[in-house]
Here is the input.
Amino acid sequence: QSVLTQPPSAAGTPGQRVTISCSGSSSNIGSNYVYWYQQLPGTAPKLLIHTNNQRPSGVPDRFSGSKSGASASLAISGLRSEDEGDYFCATWDDSLYVVFGGGTKLTVL
Amino acid sequence: EVQLLESGGGLVQPGGSLRLSCAASGFTFDTYAMSWVRQAPGKGLEWVAAIGGSGHRTYADSVRGRFTIYRDNSKNTLSLEMSSLRAEDTALYFCAKDSGFNFLPDFWGQGTQVTVSS
Here is the structure.
């Protein structure tokens, strides 16, 4: 059971906007930055969003992150078939370790 | 270009030991913390251990006392010494470079598979 809670699945059609939530507590999301990772089938995770809402170079602006209190969310607009994969949120917990969400499997219908 | 290449995975019996290595290149290795993160088959990501540039270590509760993370800055190499291995340690182990914030990664290797089974 993961410290951060994500919905196990999400789905959308091409062009739609999809949002994935990540819920934590005051000791993790509530007091630290949130990161988001994309893991496409058979590949290593890739950093999608850092420090709550910043995109690394090369990540399309279709991907955006936000945080409010002890929750965060990842939004994907203009959904594309190549976005299909798993998405994980992560942050630091003040108990001195990194915590991940359980992951959300995104399906593009 | 950042590159992380893991090696050392394999099949080991319960109670056995294994050492994983990660060869890093494309960045100033000794200025970044590094982590190991694992993924059990069909499961999510689990942070295992991290080490700062100067050697400060931190571990997940599930591996503390059994795993040791260390680094050789002269060889740009990260290692994970695993002992008293259990079936639940079976996973793909990723080496990851720190982003600069609390051991959260910004780049991952492709992983090395560890299978604990008799």
Notes: Chain B touches chain A through 24 residues (CB under 8 Å). Chain B has a mean pLDDT of 96. The first strand of chain B starts at residue 3 and ends at 7. The radius of gyration of chain B is 13 Å.
